[in-house]
Amino acid sequence: MKKHFSARRIAVLGVLLAAASVTFLIESLVPPLLVFAPYIKIGLANCFVLFVIVCFGAGDAFFFLLAKNLLTALFTGWFTLWLNLAGSFCAYLLMAGLYAAFFPKVGLLSASIAGAIVSNIARTSVAVIWMETPSLYVQLPFICAFSIAAGAIVGILTILCIKHLPERLTNFQ
Fold this sequence. Notes:
- The protein is mostly helical and 173 residues long.
- It has 7 helices and no strands.
- It has one domain (7-170): Arp2/3 complex 21 kDa subunit ARPC3 (Orthogonal Bundle).
């Protein structure tokens, strides 16, 4: 089945991209929540990625993810691009895969939590490579516990958006 690319679809994706980018930029202004791991964050912009996976499909979500990371790198600096790409791409792969293969047995909340855990593990791995400090992996139990809470927040927000937004904004599949 051929996807229908309409001006409305592209406009909604553009608005979602702008909202995700602004959310990311605002979150980047917040001091680190984990002092011992300043590269770890809640990832509220992943609400938009998960929303796009559900409402537009995994293909559109992949390009959405790339655009979001490149756009936000213009404002936060290119050195953060690798941390953000690693976390976003790993979370995307897991969330899109779980949604495509197991939904509704695996719900959006579970997919979001799994995505948050994998995202923060990937970000930690990039930090280990970047700083040449394998001892950072000692933080993973704390980071994974934080990721469960962060993923739950993102998942709940996404579920609320899908449930309460008008159907004309969520029906693009």
